[in-house]
TrEMBL record:
Residues 14-280 form the Protein kinase domain. SMART domains: S_TKc (SM00220). It comes from the Eukaryota. It comes from Paramecium pentaurelia. GO terms for molecular function: ATP binding; protein kinase activity. This is Casein kinase I. InterPro entries: CK1_Ser-Thr_kinase (IPR050235), Prot_kinase_dom (IPR000719). Pfam families: Pkinase (PF00069). PANTHER family: CASEIN KINASE-RELATED.
Length: 440
């Protein structure tokens, strides 16, 4: 039995990297275009399944769907090591992967999946293609993207509209958890069956279970029991605990007949959230931001509040500076004697040790006279920047305004500036200024 190996080159430019997944029909490998660097998905049909021609059918369907942006783009098809191989562009991870990663999906995310999937189904139905195997594993998404993709057309069918539905019973086709009632009854599926399966997918993504989940463990009559429950259960019971939109959707789909062309636009409109005037919605795994009028207005209000806060801060600095100027001679006095140098060095060492030990506050109270120290002890603990404003008479007002603006923008820059400009500046320059006055 032939198998693809890591490092195999297909079509001279596609290199096999590693196994991604496998199922009953074959295996999927991650590969790479060695010329462009683009990641690709390499699908290989099992040799024992080649008589079913599933990969050949999928290739023909993808050729017919060429030009639809949210289905796989066929890059290469042929035989390699006696294996039927199909190569498409790598489109991301399936919804089960994201569901396990995010634990659950938001309503906005599920509604966006619904809208995009209805649009994808509309596009492939226009080409008379019925997917017949809708499930979360066949819906892909990726980060930094606001689109999802529908893959795996291995059991899809080129549907030709007929006047009446065939009564001949056919084998079950699809996945039992999400298959339509028609599929369980062994009848030919139509466009409405894809939409019905999508409804089951959406409910599962929301609740992570379906009413027939317990039957899936049964081995003997699993298909019959699940099909019978789907046939008997009412939409209200299936959608219990779900938003009203899902019930509306399932009700409208149930009213469609076999040959009827669905009103896709009407179905999509069910999931359009009109609250907060949202222009579009995002996926939970995407980094795209919401864009809506309310958000834009909130951003404007936040900007205005920030500007007002900066204005208030500037006014606070100016007011503090004016007060300091009026009481400069009364609040700050200097005593220079023979022990001044040793006293300064002792206090400098103590304050430096405190500032290196914590970035949350910087002590700058060394300039106060005895009366100022006693007055300060009666006050509540000041913030770092308030202490800097009250005790600094030497730094120019322009520099103080600039420092305050930096504080509003970046906390880390504030701490660094306070450390270097407040501690060292205030320790050294006051005495240098006094000594220069004394010399003059």
């Amino acid at each position: 039995m032939y198998e693809l190996q890591q490092g195999d080159m297909i079509g001279d430019i596609y290199k096999v990297k590693k196994l991604l997944s496998q199922g009953s029909f074959g295996k999927v490998y991650i590969g790479k275009n060695i010329e462009s660097g683009m990641k690709v998905a390499i699908k290989v049909e099992k040799q024992e399944m080649q008589n079913f021609l599933s990969l050949e059918r999928e290739v023909e369907i993808l050729k017919k769907l060429r030009g639809i942006p949210q289905v796989p783009q066929l890059l290469w098809y042929g035989k390699y090591k006696e294996l039927q191989v199909m190569i498409t562009k790598m489109l991301g991870f399936d919804l089960i992967y994201f569901l396990k990663k995010n634990k659950k999906f938001s309503i906005e995310c599920i509604f966006n999946i619904a809208q995009q999937m209805i649009e994808i189904l509309e596009n492939i139905h226009k080409k008379n293609i019925i997917h017949r195997d809708l499930k979360p594993e066949n819906i892909l998404g990726k980060s930094h993207s606001d689109q999802i993709y529908l893959i795996d057309f291995g059991i899809a069918k080129d549907f030709v509209k007929s006047k009446k539905q065939s009564k001949a019973k056919i084998p079950f086709i699809g996945t039992s958890r999400y298959a339509s009632v028609t599929a369980h009854r062994g009848l030919e599926q139509s466009k409405r069956d894809d939409l019905e399966s999508l409804g089951y997918v959406l409910i599962y993504l929301l609740k992570q279970k379906l009413p027939w989940s317990n039957y899936e463990k049964s081995e003997n009559d699993r298909l019959e029991r699940i099909g019978q429950l789907k046939y008997e259960i009412k939409p209200q019971e299936i959608c219990e605990g779900c938003p009203q939109q899902l019930l509306n959707y399932m009700t409208q789909v149930a009213q469609l007949n076999h040959q009827q062309i669905p009103n896709y636009q009407k179905l999509k409109s069910i999931f359009q959230l009109k609250i907060n005037h949202k222009q579009y919605m995002i996926f939970d795994w995407s980094n795209t931001q919401f864009v809506n009028s309310k958000t834009i207005q909130d951003k404007k209000n936040n900007n205005n509040n920030q500007k007002q806060n900066k204005y208030d801060s500037v006014q606070h600095i100016k007011l503090s500076a004016d007060k300091m100027s009026s009481r400069h001679l009364h609040t700050i006095t200097f005593h220079v004697d023979s022990n001044a140098s040793s006293c300064f060095n002792s206090q400098q060492s103590s304050s430096m040790q405190h500032s290196f030990g914590s970035h949350q506050s910087v002590q700058v109270d060394f300039l106060n006279s005895d009366s100022s120290v006693q007055s300060q002890k009666k006050q509540n603990k000041l913030s770092t920047f308030d202490a800097f404003i009250i005790n600094d008479d030497i730094m120019p007002i322009k520099d103080q305004l600039q420092l305050m603006e930096l504080e509003n923008q970046d906390l880390e820059i504030k701490h660094n500036l306070l450390h270097y400009h407040s501690v060292y500046y205030n320790f050294k320059n006051p005495f240098q200024g006094i000594l220069s006055l004394k010399i003059n």
